[in-house]
Amino acid sequence: MLLLLPASEDTLALGAVLGCGLAQAPKPVALLLQGPLGSGKTTLVRGLVSALPGAGEAEVASPSFNLVNLYPTRPQVAHFDLYRMEASHPLEEFEELLAQPGTLIVAEWIDRMAEKLWPDEALHIKWLAVPSGRALEIRAWGKAASGLLLSLAPALNHWQKGSTV
Q: Is there a domain that residue 164 lies in?
């Protein structure tokens, strides 16, 4: 699915839609983000967290230096930044939190991790270069993720390529 987001407000709104969907998914689905520096990955996470109960207690920021931020939302969000993975290898903590029921995993710079290590159930969002705004490609990995993306399709429709925004 290809989405076109003309403004940062659209990125926040998309994050909120994803947050609601991921929180209500019958089986845990991770959110894997891939895009260049400054593309809007953390903005998307800010929108996601804002849609969850307990968001008022969460201060969303890029976890570049501490590798993971845990937000006291319901469900809890574990926000990873894998950019410096080669230097600090956060896989153990990533795998621990991935196995923890009730934790929503969001990972920025997922392209720094071999695909064979990615969660079995995930939505993969890749930022694409466009002249203005943002373009994102969303792919589902796994049966639960495919069902989630299908259920979110009506809410994502107005951002789909070819529709008027």
A: no
136 DSSP β-pair partners:
3, 127
What is the pTM (predicted TM-score) of this model?
0.87
Question: Do you find a cis peptide bond into 75, omega within 30 degrees of 0?
Answer: yes
Tokens 């993975």 label which residue?
Answer: 85
Inside any domain, residue 7: no
Amino acid at residue number 82: L
Residue 15 has pLDDT above 90, yes or no: yes
Type of residue numbered 52: L
Number of domains within the chain: 1
Q: Does the pLDDT of residue 64 top 80, yes or no?
A: no
pLDDT digits (tens, 9 = 90+) for 86-110: 644 556 676 676 667 788 999 999 9
Average pLDDT over residues 44-57: 89
For 10, 44, 88, 120, 147, the CA distances from 50, given in Å and listed in that order, are 14, 10, 29, 26, 23
CA distance linking residue 158 with residue 27, whole number of Å = 26
Q: Summarize the chain as % helix, strand, coil (round to 5).
A: 40, 25, 35
The two structure tokens encoding residue 149: 């993306």
